[in-house]
């Protein structure tokens, strides 16, 4: 399973990259707005830190505008994926861009039918937003199960990015279901390694080692 960081913060990306487990990055307009850097400079720097796919979102809404914007964004770095919301105009644009070899990440996916159409349009990635479904009392992970089944039934190559992840349990569930990727906030990425018994165990070993060293 691949792990992406869901942030546009360079410090967080550099730190997670240093852990040796970072496979890519996803950004969105909200995450980019939090950073105090010109957009294109920010994206180019992120793409230098991470060799895996870096998703950047189009803000155009008409297919021809999305295509033009995506081509421009894609020229910024060799490892970009272009995020496009799953609308009819987005699907049209995705078909054109994917035939040009531009990787599209269809985003804001909340239903299995949207994910089916994204795959049919040639999207490289599809991003179901799990936390936002949980927030309105749906079971977000059911959507991931449905997409995995649909993609397996028809051998679609589109990779599933479990997005809008709120806690480590979401990552574990996504891995058990067999999603290809989870994209997680930095705070969740840190929590994935934490366990109180690990911390207690280290403390005890270090205390006991002092007795060994004193001999
Ligand atoms: C994923 O690509 C999105 O950027 C992200 O996961 C959205 O998460 P949120 O629901 O916490 O904003």
Explain this structure to me?
By secondary structure, this protein is of the alpha/beta class. The protein has one domain (2-214): Alpha-Beta Barrel (TIM Barrel), CATH 3.20.20.70. It contains eleven helices and eight strands. It has helices spanning 10-18, 29-33, 39-49, 63-74, 88-99, 112-120, 130-135, 140-154, 168-177, 186-191, 196-214; strands at 2-6, 24-26, 54-57, 80-85, 104-109, 125-128, 159-162, 181-184. It has an eight-stranded parallel β-barrel, surrounded by seven helices. The longest helix has 19 residues, at 196-214. The radius of gyration is 19 Å and the shape is globular. The model has no long low-confidence stretch (mean pLDDT 98). The structure holds erythose-4-phosphate.
Secondary structure: elements and pairs:
Blueprint: E1 2-6, H1 10-18, E2 24-26, H2 29-33, H3 39-49, E3 54-57, H4 63-74, E4 80-85, H5 88-99, E5 104-109, H6 112-120, E6 125-128, H7 130-135, H8 140-154, E7 159-162, H9 168-177, E8 181-184, H10 186-191, H11 196-214
Parallel strand pairs: 1-2, 1-8, 2-3, 3-4, 4-5, 5-6, 6-7, 7-8
Residues 6, 26, 28, 107, 127, 129, 131-132, 163-164, 183 line the site of erythose-4-phosphate (E4P).
Number of helices: 11
- CATH names the topology as TIM Barrel
Q: What is the CATH superfamily label?
A: Aldolase class I
Order of helices and strands: EHEHHEHEHEHEHHEHEHH
Strand order of the largest sheet: 1-2-3-4-5-6-7-8
Indicate how many domains the architecture comprises. Answer: 1
The Rg value, from CA coordinates, equals 19 Å
Q: N- to C-terminal separation?
A: 46 Å
**Bound chemical compounds:** erythose-4-phosphate
The proportion of residues forming helix, as a percent range, comes to: 40-55%
CATH architectural arrangement: Alpha-Beta Barrel
- Would you report the number of β strands? 8
Structural class: alpha/beta
Averaged pLDDT = 98
Q: Which term fits the overall shape?
A: globular
Largest beta sheet, briefly? 8 strands, parallel, barrel
Tell me, what is the CATH class? Answer: Alpha Beta
